[in-house]
């Protein structure tokens, strides 16, 4: 294993405000999406354009037409292809995407087509990897397909629970493909993962709740996810990102 592997801190953002905070706090790159609370979906065009205007670090765009599984209909797959081409024209540095077959294996036919469609872009396989049948087979297939990065929690609810699988994935990757550790990442987790499995690339959101500016509040109506207040906004916490950056940059 390459102990001198360059470190990376990617921050996942779903607003212009969060993007600005994350860059100022020391993020190396951003994953731009919408709807982080449901795992993220493809961002809006105006959202991405505004982030591109104010951020000069690398922007990787999540291409996910809906929440839920990663078995896509023909119409959804066409949307994915068209969105890749659109965001490339708008100035994206990379795309974050993943397709599975119904049997749980990586859909190598679709992934090959997307890799070709995204020529010239950084290509990240997102956490579809974490719900695939065999992560070690999927890693080898990803290398063959020309995938640059795998974003993964080690097929667990969070990266600490998936630590042993992540350790194996890092060893198998052996510098051929980047293993980007995600889910539950903060400064303390980075410190532990650096020491115990020598991970060097991390993905986090560092979200905090910001109270709505609304003075009048009708609490009787819920617009979406039950149990979530309509008067709470999730934003990147700059202090969380700065702490993570300090730990990751320390020897």
Walk me through the structure.
With 251 residues, the protein is of the alpha/beta class. The chain has one domain: TIM Barrel (Alpha-Beta Barrel). The chain contains eight helices and ten strands. The strands form two sheets. The chain has an eight-stranded parallel barrel, surrounded by four helices. It has a two-stranded antiparallel ribbon with strand order 9-10. Helix 2 links the parallel strand 2 and strand 3. Helix 1 runs parallel beside helix 8 and helix 7 runs parallel beside helix 8.
Write the layout of secondary structure elements.
Blueprint: E1 8-13, H1 16-25, E2 29-32, H2 45-54, E3 58-62, H3 74-89, E4 94-97, H4 108-117, E5 122-125, H5 135-145, E6 149-152, H6 163-173, E7 178-182, H7 187-197, E8 201-204, E9 207-211, E10 232-236, H8 238-249
Helix pairs in contact: 1-8, 7-8
CATH class designation:
Alpha Beta
Query: Can you tell me the residue ranges where pLDDT is under 50 for at least 5 consecutive residues?
Result: none
**What is the general shape?**
globular
The percent of residues in helical segments reads: 25-40%
List the strand order in the largest sheet. Answer: 1-2-3-4-5-6-7-8
Strand residue content: 15-25%
What's the SSE pattern? EHEHEHEHEHEHEHEEEH
Please, how many helices? 8
* Biggest sheet architecture: 8 strands, parallel, barrel
Total discrete domains: 1
CATH architect. name: Alpha-Beta Barrel
Cα-atom radius of gyration: 18 Å
């Amino acid at each position: 294993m390459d102990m001198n592997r360059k470190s990376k801190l990617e921050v996942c953002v779903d607003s212009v405000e969060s993007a600005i905070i994350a860059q100022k706090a020391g993020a190396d790159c951003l994953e731009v999406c919408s709807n982080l609370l449901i795992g993220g979906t493809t961002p809006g065009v105006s959202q991405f354009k505004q982030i591109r205007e104010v951020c000069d670090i690398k922007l990787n765009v999540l291409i996910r037409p809906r929440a839920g599984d990663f078995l896509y209909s023909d119409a959804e797959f066409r949307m994915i292809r068209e969105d890749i081409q659109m965001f490339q024209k708008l100035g994206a540095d990379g795309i974050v995407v993943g397709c599975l077959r119904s049997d749980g294996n990586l859909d190598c036919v679709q992934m090959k087509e997307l890799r070709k469609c995204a020529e010239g872009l950084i290509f990240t396989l997102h956490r579809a990897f974490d719900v695939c049948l065999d992560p070690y087979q999927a890693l080898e297939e990803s290398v063959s397909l020309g995938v640059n990065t795998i974003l993964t929690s080690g097929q667990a609810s969070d990266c600490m629970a998936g630590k042993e699988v992540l350790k194996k994935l890092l060893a198998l990757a052996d510098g051929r493909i980047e293993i980007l550790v995600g889910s539950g990442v903060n400064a303390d987790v980075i410190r532990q993962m650096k020491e115990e499995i020598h991970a060097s690339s991390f993905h986090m959101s560092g979200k905090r709740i910001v109270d709505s500016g609304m003075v009048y509040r009708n609490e009787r109506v819920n617009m979406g996810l039950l149990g979530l207040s309509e008067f709470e906004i999730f934003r990147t916490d700059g202090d969380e990102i700065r702490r993570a950056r300090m730990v990751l940059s320390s020897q």
